[in-house]
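[job 0412] stage=fold_complex status=start
inputs:
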Amino acid sequence: MLEEVSVIDQGDMIINIGPQHPSTHGVLQLVVTLNGETIKKVEPHLGYIHRSIEKMCESLSYRQFIYVTSRMDYLSSHINNHGCALCVEKGLQIELPERAKVIRVLMDELTRIASHELWWGAMAMDLGAFTPFFLAFRERETITDIMEDTCGARLTMNYIVPGGVMADLHPDFQRKVKAFIKLFREKADQYNELVTGNIIFQSRMKNVGILSKEDAISYGCTGPTARGSGVNCDIRKLYPYEIYDKLKFDEILETGCDSFSRYLVRVKEMYQSISIIEQLIDNIPEGDFQAKTKAVLKLPKGEFYTRVETARGELGVYIVSEGGTTPYRIKFRSPGFSNLSALNHMAKGGKIGDLVAMMGTLDLVIPDIDR
Amino acid sequence: MTNEELKIKLTELLSSATFEEGTDPIAIGWVNLFIAPAEWKPFAQQLRSTEGLDFDFLFCVTCIDWKTHLTMVYHLTSTKHRHTIVVKSKLDRTKPEIETVCDIWRTAEFHEREQAEMFGVNFLNHPDLRKLILTDDFEGFPLRKDFEDPINMIKL
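[job 0412] stage=fold_complex status=done
writing structure:
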């Protein structure tokens, strides 16, 4: 059954969190109805960073629109670009050189680690621990440096384009990535000791923000949010793209359905990403990094849908083409938008002090939600 | 369930549904079907609860403005059987109305609110159809093709 919309009784208090509040990780406004300390309703108000990317894309060509999509989920911009590039390639039936595929997967996984690390630091900070934030940023910096060498940018990379990748890898890429793997392996255990095993951290996370498996599916949750509730939803396993079907990695599932499970999924995913990078870093095939494509791309008339696994979940790119050089309609099914819709359900009945912790485990990136 | 079996099963549920061949070379396994807006709600309930179909995951809700009419597009998949269908429904552009499905798939609540403000689709019986992304006093439907913005540049 649907939950009631109006729940305000006498003695209830309505408080406003955000849009300019550090705990919302961006410009998200929450209107919370409280009874004492118990949450009765959480109402998200979006749109503070809405740029109507879908409308903008309608007047941009298939080469240009990639640049706008980096600005959606800026923490996994490679994977956003990847989803869009895949959709265009699918329409044009471009076959990629092996080298481009491997580079793409390497970049995706590096991005995933960078994104999860930032989340890990911010998550701990949401709960009042300040040190992890600095530690996470220190290691994340190594990845951004690697990105800067190859892509020329640190945040909005625009590196994966239809037909392959923008430029070849930097000569230092392999050396630096190997150094990062070594560094990460050393530091990650230290992280676990500092945060994961911490008793205060655990007692604030366990049995908080319960999201059952059925609810996770019904709310359209994907990514680590849903996998923390035991839903099989890793696109890399279910609908493999590029070379994911040839790689050895596990889909992390936790069945605790609480904030701590969602935390564990992300921490364990970092190790899986590292293992994927280790499998590939010495086996980057020689050859071209781009397929030969025409200067002006024209998608045939029809509809194209691709999905990729970003750090937050399933990103769907739906292009409706009329045969021209620009998409007739483009829709981004962003993972954060669906994940956020479950927040009210998760928070209801909980305490106001836990709200920020629950929201932290959803790993919200606001531009991804607003688009 | 294979494509053909799905088609047979879906025709059994709703004989007036028409099928369209997918143009997507990889997603060709996705059955595309057109239904009338009035039939959507009971049909959606059957899709969710019929044994063997079990479409429990609504992953994408969107709308397309074809200038003469609007088309609602629902992408559904089953986490149990792993089959996917795309349900489409043509709406009248001057008075677009369709029943909400947010009591069947709760993710639809947010998605429908977004489509309502962007395209002006009226989702009947939706519990809370206020503006979600745009400001409350915003006029017009920005994702429609005839939308003109006097202030911001939206076209090149």
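[job 0412] summary: Chain A touches chain B through 46 residues (CB under 8 Å).
[job 0412] exit 0
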